[in-house]
Amino acid sequence: MDIRVIAMDVDGTLLNSQKCLSEKTKAALLQVQKKGIRLILASGRPTTGLMQLAHELKMDQYEGLLVSFNGAKIVDVKTGDVLLNETMSIEDGQAVLEHVKQFKVKAMIDYGDYLYVNDVFDCFIRHDDTDINIIQYEARGGNFHLCEKEDLAAFANYRLNKILIAGDSDYLKRYAEQIAQPFKKKLNAVFTAPFYFEFTAQGIDKAKALDTIFGQLGYTREMLLAFGDGENDITMLEYAGIGVAMGNAGSTVKMTADEITNSNDEDGIVKMVEKYFFI
């Protein structure tokens, strides 16, 4: 198979549990780029949360791409050009933010260099019997400054790529259907982690984003090797010529994959890169 592109989810896939890129994985990805393979980071993160990692992998030197907001935006790392930008309507974004006020969740939206929340001190969620400062976690992951807005729905008079909803994992599992119900015919709503539920424009996912640009770049889906661990990676793994689930992925993700590799803490990407590129 003529693999020309590698697309990777970031959290739980490219990065280990400490949110670090291992030296072994970094070295392997630098080596395949020298062989002419293009890298794509495909994540639910905002673009700002991917750029530092892209530069660490020298993707600016090898024409790498960033697929952010779960496929709503595509940016060329080298030039900064925006190749795709899909947003919700202002009305739909405000409607979601108004609707979620009735639930015990924390809504987060971004604009420029800022992440906007209702209350920076109301910041903890519960997952696996652990309290997580989710606002700090998201702000640092996206390289954002923080700003409070008492009414996010009233503030969001611009088109959003994504609305991030965070909450206790057990609570979100119980109420996700009710949170999404009014928007099922208008927007995408998907879990990106047990404590994250996200809204994007209708029809947006990682596979659609890749398919949108592949024709322009002269690639076919058969040329794609893709890695992921979450439910929002499933369409990308199904789309790819070879879809690889990480060892730490859930059972649903593994069932859709062509192959299963080691976990993100065991350099699972390296195992497949060595297999297909003989490095």
Primary descriptors:
279 residues, alpha/beta, Rossmann fold, Hypothetical Protein, Haloacid Dehalogenase-like Hydrolase, Chain: A, domain 2, 2 domains
Provide a quick synopsis of the model.
This protein is α/β, with parallel strands linked by helices and 279 residues long. The chain is built from 11 helices and 16 strands.
For the largest sheet, list the strands in their spatial order.
Answer: 5-4-3-2-1-14-15-16
Report the principal-axis shape: globular
Biggest sheet architecture? 8 strands, mixed
CATH architecture of the largest domain: 3-Layer(aba) Sandwich
N-to-C SSE series?
EHHEHEEEHEEEEHEHEHEEHEHEHEH
Name the helicity range.
25-40%
- Helix/strand/pairing class, anyone? alpha/beta
Radius of gyration, CA atoms, in whole angstroms: 18 Å
Unreliable stretches, pLDDT < 50, 5 or more residues? none
CATH superfamily of the largest domain: HAD superfamily/HAD-like
Question: How many beta strands in the DSSP annotation?
Answer: 16
- The total count of helices amounts to 11
CATH class of the largest domain: Alpha Beta
What's the CATH topology name of the largest domain? Rossmann fold
Oligomerization: single chain
Count of the domains = 2
Percent of sequence in beta strands: 25-35%
Mean residue pLDDT: 96
The N- to C-terminal Cα distance equals 16 Å
